[in-house]
Amino acid sequence: MASLVLKGVKALALWTSEIDKKNNKQKSDRNMKISVKICLGALACACLVLSARATTIDLSVDPNFPPGSTPYVLGNVNPPEPADPTDYANYINAMIPLALGGQVSVPVSGGSDNVYRSENAFSGLTTATIIGDVLSTGNPTTSILDTGFEYLVGKYDGPNGGLEVWDIAGIAAGTTIDIPENAYGAGNGQYGLSGWVLMNGTGSQNVPDGGSTALLLGFAISGLFFARRYMPSQPKPARAVRRI
Prior knowledge:
Elements: H1 2-53, E1 56-58, E2 73-78, H2 85-95, E3 103-108, E4 111-117, E5 134-135, E6 143-146, E7 149-156, E8 162-167, E9 175-178, E10 182-183, E11 191-201, H3 210-230
Parallel strand pairs: 1-9
Antiparallel strand pairs: 2-4, 2-8, 3-4, 5-11, 6-9, 7-8, 7-11, 10-11
């Protein structure tokens, strides 16, 4: 009789242990799915926030000499020859000390070009340099990804059009800048864009701003918290059955 009771107790203990294992596994699988969904949701929210930050801004050409107060316009040049980044840097450096609406003649190879300052007052303008500049190639696109620069130069046609200089230091890195395909001349749309140059890297390339970093860190911490909250604890080992 005692032997039968012992066998019955052992069978019951084994059956109970198997049920516990099955329940724990189901609970673990269910909680793991919950944790994965939470983490994926947090990641999706972060992606939405970052994509929302990727903005586009349109810049306009002011065809007047000197230009007025068109946003971001630092100045312009006429005629815009020769087409060389070193000359572009010289144009900008001649614009910086000019009075608003001022003009100066800048010597270039084969003559001189007229450099004009807009009516916009900018602060913190730094000396233009060709170090690290980015030039358009081939048929220039009118959509330009700003990865962190201070100046954007757009050249329209050769001796007939003009050269526009924009101060883009205040535009957030990662912004796509659209500039006109045609400008100057009749209706401010007669001459085609022949090239552009980004100058004076601001050092913010590929560096996310503090707000995005904090947001992503918050999502990561939240995901870890919920994963730990819903992850099951390790099941306790089944107690050994005492022999009778």
